[in-house]
Design brief:
The structure holds 2 protein chains of 2 kinds.
Chain A: E1 2-10, H1 14-25, E2 30-34, E3 50-51, H2 62-72, H3 79-98, E4 113-121, E5 126-132, H4 138-153, E6 156-159, E7 161-169, E8 172-180, E9 185-196, H5 217-224, E10 229-230, E11 235-242, H6 252-255, E12 259-261, H7 269-272, H8 282-294, E13 306-309, H9 315-321, H10 323-333, E14 342-351, E15 355-356, E16 362-364, E17 371-377, E18 382-383, H11 395-417, H12 429-439, H13 447-461, E19 465-466, H14 468-485, H15 499-523, E20 532-533, H16 541-544, E21 546-552, E22 560-566
Parallel strand pairs in A: 1-2, 1-9, 2-6, 9-17, 15-18, 19-20
Antiparallel strand pairs in A: 3-5, 4-5, 7-8, 8-9, 10-21, 11-14, 12-13, 13-14, 16-17, 21-22
Helix pairs in contact in A: 1-4, 1-11, 2-3, 3-11, 5-15, 13-14, 13-15, 14-15
Chain B: E1 2-10, E2 20-28, H1 34-44, E3 64-67, E4 70-73, H2 79-82, E5 89-93, E6 100-102, E7 105-106, H3 109-117, H4 137-141, H5 160-164, H6 171-181, H7 189-196, H8 210-214, H9 221-234
Classes of the chains: A alpha/beta, B alpha+beta.
C-alpha cells in the first residue's frame, strides 16, 4: 500500500499528538502513525505534573525555571533550549487548560501547583511550587486531552503500525515504511516532512518504569543510517520505583512531604542534600539511595530498597492528591501508604539523549550544523538538549508539548514550501530484508532469552554507578548478544497480529540503543549528572563540557564512532555560568 | 513458587475454524501479575500467542481480558487474586462483544467509534482568557471519576445490553460524555445530552452494575450513568 501526506507524524504520545495538532493548523495534510492506540502511549503513565512558572501558589519567574533546568542538567543543558522552554511552557500550560485539561485547582480556582525535585526560587534558595498537576495522573490527562483535541481536529491515525524504515536519500527524508500489525502488510508513506515522536527505550534495563513497548525503534533506525545519537550516556534512574517492579512512584510524593528513610528510620537525604533534602534532583537522590543500600542500610528481604514514608500526611492528601500511587502500592505490594512504609528502589526511567535536533525540531546529522532536510523529532526520543546530564521532574511533560508544538509548526511550514521529493525505486527493500532475515533464519536462539540477558547486563554494567572495566565487559556482552540475535528465528508464519515477529524486531532495535549508550558512557571519563563514574568521580569542564555524538560504524559492525558537539552556554537573554552543583 | 496452569482461549483465523482451549504450565510467585504469567507462556513456551499490552501497571488499558470469567486488566490482577494454591488454573479469554481478531486481540474500532460519537472533546467557543479559565475545587472534583477512565473497554464489554445490541453506545462512552457534561467550562452540554437521549444512548442501560464491577479504576460507572440520565431528563447539568 502507498500513502501520501504533506506531514507524517510517527508516535502518538504527548509530543506526537501536539505535533499533529500544530501541523494540521499549518494547512497541510497530516497523518499520524502509532504502534499502539494513541490513548495507550506511555505519556499516560506520567504522574506528578508539568512545571511552569505560573506563580499561582508562590512567586515564580521563567528565569528561575531556566536556571533550575540548566543547573539540574549539570550545565550540559543547551541554554538557548532552556530559555525557549521556560518561556514557552507558560503559554502551553494555559493552552492545555483551554483545551479542557482538568487540572487540580487552588482555593481561588487557578491551576494548582506543588513542589518537585530541583525546582527552586531565586536561583537555588529554597523549593518552589512550580509543578502544575491533575492529581497524580497529569500525564494521563495530557494524553487524553491531546487525543480528544485530535479527534476534534479530525486527525487521521494509523493505529498499530510499526515503522520499520526511514526513507532518507541525499540528505532529505522522503517518508517512512511501516508494518501493519493486523494484516502483516508493508506500507509506504510518502511525505514532505516527517516528525519522529516515538518515545524512549527503557526496556533495555531490567528494572524500569517504561512500558514493554519502549524499545527505541526510531532512535535505532536513525542510528542504523549512520546518523548520530546525542548524549546517550545520560540515562535517568527515577529514585522511586515500587520495589522489584520498577513501577513509577511520582516525585509528587516527596513534593507533598513524603520522606525517604533507611532501615534505621533515618531521613538520610539530610546528609546528601542539606538544603533541599528529599527534593534534590533525581540523579542525586538515586545515588544516595544506592549508597544507603550498598552500605547495608537497605530494607526488605534482600536489603535492596529504602522506604518512602507518608504516614505523617493527612489521609485526604494521600488518597486525593496521591490517589494513583496509593492504588499502585495497595494493588502490587498489598501496602497502605496511609499507615505503612512503602519500599522503593531506583528504576530506569528516562533517556536524556536521543536523536539530536535544533530548537525547531529539525534533526541534526552531525555536530557541526548539518541536518536532515524534512526530518523533525520531539519528545523523549529527541535530544534538543533541554535536559543535559539530568532531567528535572516535570520537565518531560513540558518538553513533549513545547517541542512537539514547535516541531509541528516548523514541519508544516517546511512542507508548504517544498514539493514531494522522489521516493527510492524500491522503498520497501530494506524492510523486507529485515523481516526476511527474521523469518528465514535457521538458528535456534530465543529472542526472549537474549532480551533478558540484555536487560540484566545493562542494569549491572551501565546502571547508576559505572566504571571502565564493567562497561568494557558490556561492550563484549553486547557483541555476543548481537551475534546470537542473528540466529533468532521467528517460527510463526501468520500474517495477522504476528507479535512474535514484532518483538524480535524490537529486540534488534533495543540492542542498537544499548550499543550506542554503552560506547558513549565508556568514552566519557568524568562524572556529570546521571552519568556517574567510580573511576572518574569529578566533573571535568575543561575536557567534557561538550555533547557526545555516537555514530554506528557502518564498515565495522559493533564499532561505535564518537564525535562531539558544543554546548550552548548562553540563552538569548540570560546565561548561567557553570558552577559546582550543590543543593 | 507456585505451579500454575494457564488456560487460554486460542484462535488464529488463518489456521483455526473455531476457538479452542490450550493449557500451559508455568511457575509463578503469588505476587506476580497475570500478565507476567501470560508473558511466561508467550516468551518461553508458545511465542505465537497474540495479545495487547504495554505499560504493565494499569494505566494504558491495552490488556483488558476475561480472567477467571471476569473482565480485568492482566497487569493489575495478581496471581494470588485469582488462584489459591499450587496447581490451580488461571483462565484467560478475550473480552466479549467485539470480534476476535486473533487469540486475545479483539477489534477495538467499534469501541472507539462509539467514543467518537459523543463529541469527546472540550468545547468552549468564547475567546480564551490570557491565563486559565477559573474553576473551583468543587467544580474540578466533579470530573474526578469520569476523567479517570483509560478507555480499556472492560466496562462496555462486560455489559449484557452491549452484547445483545452492539449499537448501544456503552458505559465507557457515557462516562466520557459525563466528563464533559459536568465540566463547568464546557459549552456543549445540550448537544451531548441530545446524543445521550437517542435510542443508542443512555436509556439502554438496565442498571446491571456489571460495568462498575469490571472497572479496573474503581470508577462508579453506574452512578455516573444515572447522573447523566437525570441530566437528560431535566436537560441540564
Amino acid at each position: 500500500m502507498h500513502h501520501r501526506y504533506d506531514v507524517l507524524v510517527v508516535g502518538a504520545g504527548g509530543a506526537g499528538l501536539m505535533a499533529a495538532l500544530y501541523a494540521a493548523k499549518g494547512n497541510v495534510s497530516v497523518a499520524c502513525i502509532s504502534k499502539l492506540y494513541p490513548t495507550r502511549s506511555h505519556t499516560g503513565a506520567a504522574q506528578g505534573g508539568i512545571g511552569a512558572a505560573l506563580g499561582n501558589v508562590a512567586e515564580d519567574h521563567w528565569e528561575w525555571h531556566m536556571f533550575d533546568t540548566v543547573k539540574g542538567g549539570d550545565y550540559l543543558t543547551d541554554q538557548d533550549a532552556a530559555e525557549v522552554f521556560s518561556k514557552d511552557i507558560i503559554d502551553v500550560v494555559y493552552e492545555l487548560e483551554h483545551m479542557g485539561l482538568p487540572f487540580s485547582r487552588t482555593a481561588d480556582g487557578k491551576i494548582a501547583q506543588r513542589k518537585f525535585g530541583g525546582h527552586t526560587r531565586e536561583f537555588g534558595k529554597a523549593a518552589v511550587e512550580r509543578s502544575c498537576y491533575a492529581k497524580d495522573r497529569t500525564g494521563h490527562m495530557i494524553l487524553q486531552t491531546l487525543y480528544q483535541q485530535n479527534v476534534k481536529a479530525g486527525t487521521l491515525f494509523f493505529n498499530e503500525f510499526h515503522v520499520t524504515d526511514l526513507l532518507i536519500e541525499d540528505g532529505r527524508c522522503r517518508g517512512v515504511v511501516a508494518y501493519e500489525l493486523s494484516t502483516g502488510e508493508l506500507h509506504t508513506f510518502h511525505a514532505k516532512a516527517v516528525i519522529l515522536a516515538a518515545g524512549g527505550y527503557g526496556r533495555i534495563f531490567k528494572i524500569t518504569s517504561n512500558a514493554v513497548t519502549l524499545t527505541g525503534d526510531l532512535m535505532s533506525i536513525y542510528y542504523r543510517k549512520g546518523l548520530p545519537l546525542e548524549d546517550m550516556e545520560f540515562y535517568q534512574f527515577h529514585p522511586t520505583g515500587l520495589a522489584k517492579l520498577g513501577i513509577l512512584v511520582t516525585e509528587g510524593i516527596r513534593g507533598e512531604g513524603g520522606i525517604l528513610r533507611n532501615e534505621g528510620g533515618e531521613r538520610f537525604m539530610e546528609r546528601y542534600a542539606p538544603t533541599i533534602k528529599d527534593l534534590a534532583p533525581r540523579d542525586i537522590v538515586s545515588r544516595s539511595i544506592i549508597t544507603e543500600i550498598r552500605e547495608g542500610r537497605g530494607v526488605g528481604r534482600d536489603k535492596d530498597a529504602v522506604n518512602i514514608d507518608l504516614t505523617h500526611l493527612p489521609r485526604e492528601v494521600i488518597e486525593g492528591k496521591l490517589a494513583e500511587i496509593t492504588d499502585l502500592a495497595r494493588t502490587y505490594l498489598g501496602l497502605d501508604p496511609v499507615k505503612d512504609l512503602v519500599p522503593i528502589q531506583p528504576t530506569a526511567h528516562y533517556a536524556m539523549g536521543g536523536i539530536p535536533t535544533d530548537l525547531n525540531g529539525l534533526c541534526l546529522s552531525d555536530g557541526n550544523g548539518g541536518s536532515v532536510e524534512g526530518l523533525y523529532a520531539a519528545g523523549e526520543q529527541a535530544c534538543v538538549s533541554l535536559h543535559g546530564a539530568n532531567r528535572l521532574g516535570t520537565n518531560s511533560l513540558g518538553d513533549l508539548v513545547v517541542f512537539g508544538r514547535r516541531a509541528g509548526i516548523y514541519a508544516a511550514q517546511y512542507a508548504r514550501q517544498v514539493e514531494f521529493a522522489d521516493l527510492p525505486e524500491d522503498p520497501q527493500a530494506e524492510s523486507r530484508a529485515l523481516f526476511d532475515s527474521l523469518r528465514q533464519g535457521t538458528g535456534k536462539e530465543n529472542a526472549a532469552v537474549i532480551r533478558k540477558e540484555l536487560q540484566e547486563s545493562m542494569m549491572n554494567n551501565v546502571g547508576i554507578f559505572r566504571n571502565g572495566p564493567d562497561m568494557e565487559k558490556q561492550v563484549d556482552i553486547l557483541k555476543d548478544l548481537k551475534a546470537r540475535y542473528r540466529n533468532v528465528t521467528v517460527g510463526d508464519p501468520s500474517k495477522r497480529y504476528n507479535s512474535e515477529l514484532i518483538e524480535a524486531m524490537e529486540l534488534g532495535f533495543a540492542l542498537d540503543c544499548a550499543e550506542a549508550m554503552t560506547a558513549s558512557a565508556l568514552n566519557r571519563t568524568e562524572s556529570r549528572g546521571a552519568h556517574d563514574r567510580e573511576d572518574f568521580t569529578e566533573r571535568n569542564d575543561v575536557d567534557w563540557l561538550k555533547h557526545t555524538m555516537a555514530y554506528k560504524d557502518l564498515d565495522k559492525p559493533g564499532n561505535v564512532l564518537i564525535g562531539y558537539k558544543d554546548v550552548a552556554l548562553k540563552g538569548f537573554t540570560r546565561a548561567f555560568e557553570p558552577k559546582p552543583r550543590v543543593y | 513458587m507456585l505451579k500454575v496452569k494457564v488456560k487460554i482461549l486460542r484462535f488464529n483465523p488463518e489456521t483455526d475454524k473455531k476457538a479452542h482451549w490450550e493449557t500451559y504450565e508455568v511457575e509463578a510467585q503469588p505476587s506476580d501479575r497475570v500478565l507476567d504469567v501470560i508473558h511466561q507462556v508467550k516468551w518461553f513456551i508458545d511465542p505465537s500467542l497474540a495479545l495487547r499490552r504495554s505499560c504493565m501497571h494499569g494505566i494504558c488499558g491495552s490488556d483488558a481480558m476475561l480472567i477467571q470469567g471476569r473482565n480485568r486488566l492482566a497487569c493489575k490482577t495478581l496471581v494470588r487474586d485469582v488462584i489459591k494454591k499450587s496447581g490451580d488454573t488461571v483462565t484467560v479469554e478475550p473480552i466479549r462483544g467485539l470480534k476476535v481478531e486473533r487469540d486475545l486481540v479483539v477489534d477495538m474500532e467499534p469501541f472507539f467509534d462509539s467514543y467518537k460519537a459523543i463529541m469527546p472533546y472540550f468545547i468552549n467557543e468564547s475567546p480564551a482568557p490570557a491565563t486559565e479559565r477559573v474553576q473551583s475545587e468543587e467544580q474540578a472534583e466533579r470530573m474526578a471519576h469520569s476523567s479517570n477512565c483509560i478507555l480499556c473497554a472492560c466496562c462496555t464489554t462486560s455489559c449484557p445490553i452491549f452484547w445483545v445490541n452492539g449499537s448501544y453506545i456503552g458505559p465507557a462512552s457515557i462516562v466520557q460524555a459525563h466528563r464533559f457534561i459536568f465540566d463547568s467550562r464546557d459549552q456543549a452540554t445540550n448537544q451531548r445530552l441530545n446524543i445521550m437521549n437517542q435510542n443508542t444512548g443512555v436509556w439502554r442501560c438496565r442498571t446491571a452494575y456489571n460495568c462498575t464491577e469490571a472497572c479496573p479504576r474503581d470508577i462508579p460507572i453506574t452512578q455516573l450513568i444515572e447522573e447523566v440520565k437525570r441530566a437528560v431528563m431535566y436537560q441540564q447539568a
